[in-house]
Amino acid sequence: MEHITLLLAIVIVTALVFDFTNGFHDTANAMATTISTGALKPKTAVAMSAVLNLVGAFLSVEVAKTISSGIVTEEGITPEVIFAALVGAILWNLLTWLIGLPSSSSHALMGGLIGATIASVGVSGVNGGTVVTKVLIPAIAAPLVAGLAAYLASRLTYRIGRNADPKATAKGYRAGQITSAGLVSLAHGTNDAQKTMGIITLALVAGGVLAPGSNPPMWVIMSAGIAIALGTYLGGWRIIRTMGKGLTDLQPQQGFAAQTSAASVILASSNLGFSLSTTHSCSGAVMGAGLGRKGGVVRWSTATRMFVAWGLTLPAAGLVAAGSEFVTKQGDWGVAAVAAFLIGSCVAIWFISRRQVVDHTNVNDVEAEAEPAGVVTTAMAAVTVPPTAAALAADDLKTTIPAPAGSSAEPVSPAAV
Do residue 269 and residue 179 come from a single domain? Predict the structure, then answer.
């Protein structure tokens, strides 16, 4: 700790700020469905998630090692590069939070790191193979796997409970949903908290405090866990609203299936060292569970906006980080200018968010959007079972037999007699 310079201290504080934004940005991953189905009260849900995020931060360091020594080479990486990467990631997190879109904090961080590294030392500073195998492939596979698992699990739960009392099963599934939400929170701590640990460790290596290839020190693990837990407790209510009500309407059975599927995917990836997006996994699971109930729908207009944000995350955060790296290279005044820009942008976004406040008191107060009949809806309608001959005959009788003469479709009130 005695070798930490002022610049390195600024980088560490900025990394913890990112971790804090990661916490409230990704609270929806664990608790949106639990809150939307009424299984837990909003404040209780985020408090539970915060505690389990903190616990999860101590369970593994595999993802942290992927971030600190896998995506970019440690040679030539300076604290200024890491600071610029964090600026790009924080601003993208805040912008997507402002509009309520569940984009990936993980990809924002990695996009910022890649963009700043390329601006500093060139493309050679990025380990392309690691980016493809441990970032891009999991980014595509995670929502598909989680979505398919949630779809099948939802279908199975409805089939098993088709003859059971709906009220009795709803209570059981709510209890299961609380348990699975806790599992997602624990998994989130094992994956996302470690990304900040990896960034701080990379900064300590770049600053000469740690040897290359070192594991995160205990004080780094502790501080990263506390920062993400505090952010989680505040709750990213705008994104919780989108995940819980904006994508689809979930019943307790579907919420249980979605969260269990997402947690399984996240925990498996954490053990393998894949730096996947928990947002992608949980969003895919929510959509899969939404389609798993007969008559369930996904609001594809919201999903499309979300997919666009996913595609823009890496390049947008990378461009901001590259621009920030260009300024920080100019010296101390450049670092000060970027820091002032970051603080000013954060304050501006916060003031804009106050125009329409979303918090625990109104997070579920949202009306479903009227979805036009798109490709998916039209395709589903095309395979709908046609009406039976008996039903058609009954409709023909209703249309051909006239009403008795003198009858009225409207009932006659006693006052008119």
Answer: yes
* pLDDT grade for 141, boundaries at 50, 70 and 90: confident
The tokens describing 153, both together, are: 């699990």
Return the closest-CA partner of residue 251 out of 150, 362, 143.
150
Closest by Cα among 315, 247, 236 to 284: 247
* Residues 76 and 125 sit within 8 Å (Cβ to Cβ): yes
**Residue at 361 is within a domain:** no
In a domain, 362, yes or no: no
Question: Distance between CA atoms of 258 and 283, rounded to whole angstroms?
Answer: 9
> Based on the domain organization, do 234 and 269 belong to the same domain?
yes
Number of domains in the chain: 2
The answer to whether residue 375 scores a pLDDT higher than 60 is no
Q: What is the CA radius of gyration of the chain?
A: 25
Tell me what pLDDT residue 322 has.
94
70 and 100 co-located in one domain: yes
Pick from 410, 41, 411, 46: nearest CA to 228: 46
Residue 181 lies in a domain: yes
The whole-number pLDDT of residue 338 equals: 94
**How far apart, in whole angstroms, are the C-alpha atoms of residue 412 and residue 184?**
60
Task: Say what the pLDDT of residue 62 is.
Answer: 64
Q: Same structural domain for residues 389 and 260?
A: no
Q: Which residues are 126's β-sheet partners?
A: 72
Q: Per residue in 17-31, pLDDT tens?
A: 999 998 888 777 778
pTM over 0.85: no
